[in-house]
Amino acid sequence: MKKALALTTGTLAALALPLVSMAAISNISDVGSFIINTINNILVPVLFAIAFIVFLWGAFQTFIIGASSDDTKEKGKNLMLWGLIGFFVMVSVWGLVNILTGTVSFGNPSQSTLPGATGVR
After folding, report:
1. Phi, psi values for residue 41, rounded to 5°
2. Which residues constitute the domain of residue 68?
3. Per the structure, how many domains does the chain have?
4. Please, what's the b/e burial string for 100-114 (b: 16 or more CB within 10 A of its CB; e: otherwise)?
5. Four-point Cα dihedral 72, 5, 42, 51, nearest 10
């Protein structure tokens, strides 16, 4: 299990390396935009896919493999529950990141979040 986790982490780091090298970060606003875009465009879909696979594997264990075994059915139900919890957590975090993006308005200096500010420099 540790080898699989290390391999997955290394692969994800290798895939994200070109994003870092082409980011052209010049100020703190660009750093915030880069981090939020990376979370929204890479991390969230990967975690949604993992939660979906866990849910499907739990359904497979519950209804197909565990048709005659109560222990296997229970394990499958637990996996389905954890898959749904993963979906809920990811939707919550994704919503919070999008609220943060809209509130702070990273990467768009013409929008201001201060009351009465015109946004013109």
Report:
1. -95, -20
2. 49-106
3. 1
4. ebeeebbeeeeeeee
5. 10
8 found inside a domain:
no
Question: What's the one-letter identity of residue 108?
Answer: N
The answer to whether residue 59 sits within a structural domain is yes
> Tens place of pLDDT for every residue, the chain, 121 residues?
566 555 565 565 555 555 555 555 667 777 878 887 887 788 878 888 888 998 898 888 888 887 788 888 888 889 889 889 988 988 887 788 778 877 876 555 555 555 555 555 5
* In-domain check, residue 16: no
Distance in angstroms (rounded) separating the CA atoms of residues 32 and 36: 6
Judge whether 29 and 53 are in contact, CB under 8 Å.
no
- Asked whether 33 and 107 are in contact (CB, 8 A), the reply is yes
Residue matched to tokens 């991390």: 43
Report the alpha-carbon distance of residue 53 to residue 40 in Å, rounded: 19
Question: Is residue 55 a contact partner of residue 80, using CB atoms and an 8 Å limit?
Answer: yes
Q: Is residue 85 part of a domain?
A: yes
pTM: 0.56
